């Protein structure tokens, strides 16, 4: 017997009538191949009988299959995209969401911030987007908690333990430990580590804190150099590196590595002969030709997981709220280039 039509059926109604979970219905609607043919047919028939229209995006029935149409919008709040990391993340998120049938409404966080992140989120929400992705390490956690209670929201590329906040993040603690272990294995026992306030960049703060902690566990003498207020290469090289006798500098990211490299070269110091350098991101053009020693962030996988999660949340096929928010970390990998080598003999 065909299910009784419902004037406003939901994905829960479809799941109950088909005898499957809402996540299975969601997979059928988005054309996921990991569904048995019999199940796919049953769900498709129930969708037709109930007259259900997927809320995640406009979808149309063609030849017995459901395809994403692309009539609705998602919001994206992203950090300044002059960064290679955020530029790449922005491109990949846009592609992923459009492939899933959504238009993307974007606001960009620039610094110093003339407009607060909360205002930018309000601007996005005012356009009646179905869900929001936040890809910025500087948005305060209380703001994320508040907005997560209003609209499906996923934090991208930063860890966030705030209650009710979904996040897909780089595994920054593992990245920091990997860099510390590599420098120690090369023989460095006195290093400088660039650090940053968590309010400025939570992900970078977590990575550098893990690097410092692991290096000290290994018996390495660490000098922390705070770059929150700016990156003064002259001060870093002349006062800190030379003043401490450090043989390596762990830079916050690859662009800062290049800046320090230029500063060292201007003073007649070689890399890695006199000072070794490490970075993070691994997305700078020519990273392989330059031989940067860095952590390659898994930006492709981050964009894929975050994009799919927000679409599932919007469509009602996301995780059970009783299970708590989704918090997933994705490890990067160490690129052992030529900017880090054994310390010089002194």
Automatic annotation (TrEMBL):
Name of the protein in question: LacI family transcriptional regulator
Stored InterPro entries: HTH_LacI, LacI/GalR-like_sensor, Lambda_DNA-bd_dom_sf, Peripla_BP_I
Species this protein is from: Corynebacterium bovis
Keyword set includes Repressor: no
Domain HTH lacI-type: residue ranges: 9-63
UniProt-annotated stretches for the region Disordered: 320-346
Gene Ontology molecular function, alphabetical: DNA-binding transcription factor activity; transcription cis-regulatory region binding
UniProt keyword terms in alphabetical order: DNA-binding, Transcription, Transcription regulation
Pfam families noted in UniProt: LacI, Peripla_BP_3
Gene3D superfamilies: 3.40.50.2300, lambda repressor-like DNA-binding domains
Highest taxon listed in the record's lineage: Bacteria
CDD domains registered for this protein in UniProt: HTH_LacI (cd01392), PBP1_LacI_sugar_binding-like (cd06267)
């Amino acid at each position: 017997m065909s299910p009784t039509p419902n004037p406003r059926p939901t994905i829960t109604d479809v799941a109950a009538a088909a005898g499957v979970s809402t996540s299975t219905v969601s997979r059928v609607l988005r054309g996921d191949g990991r569904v048995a043919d019999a199940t796919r047919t049953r769900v498709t028939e129930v969708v037709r009988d109930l007259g259900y229209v997927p809320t995640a995006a406009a979808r149309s029935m063609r030849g017995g299959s459901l395809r994403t149409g692309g009539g609705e919008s998602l919001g994206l709040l992203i950090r300044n995209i002059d960064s290679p990391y955020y530029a790449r993340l922005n491109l990949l998120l846009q592609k992923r969401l459009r492939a899933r049938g959504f238009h993307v409404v974007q606001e960009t966080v620039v610094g110093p911030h003339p407009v607060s992140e909360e205002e930018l989120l309000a601007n996005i929400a005012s356009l009646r987007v179905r869900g929001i992705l936040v890809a910025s390490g500087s948005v305060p956690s209380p703001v994320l908690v508040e907005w997560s209670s209003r609209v499906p929201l996923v934090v991208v590329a930063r860890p966030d333990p705030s209650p009710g906040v979904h996040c897909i993040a780089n595994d920054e603690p593992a990245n920091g430990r990997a860099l510390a272990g590599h420098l120690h294995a090369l023989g460095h026992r006195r290093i400088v580590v660039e650090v940053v306030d968590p309010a400025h960049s939570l992900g970078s703060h977590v990575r550098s804190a893990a690097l410092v902690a692991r290096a000290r566990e290994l018996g390495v003498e660490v000098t922390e150099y705070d770059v929150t207020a700016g990156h003064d290469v002259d001060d870093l090289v002349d006062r800190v590196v030379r003043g401490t006798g450090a043989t390596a500098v762990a830079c916050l990211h690859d662009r800062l590595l290049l800046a320090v490299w230029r500063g060292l070269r201007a003073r007649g110091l070689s890399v890695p002969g006199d000072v070794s350098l490490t970075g993070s991101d691994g997305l700078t053009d020519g990273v392989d030709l330059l031989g940067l020693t860095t952590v390659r962030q898994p930006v492709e996988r981050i964009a894929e997981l975050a994009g799919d999660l927000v679409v599932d949340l919007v469509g009602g096929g996301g995780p059970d709220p009783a299970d708590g928010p989704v918090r997933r970390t994705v490890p990067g990998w160490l690129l052992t280039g030529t900017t880090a080598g054994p310390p010089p003999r002194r």
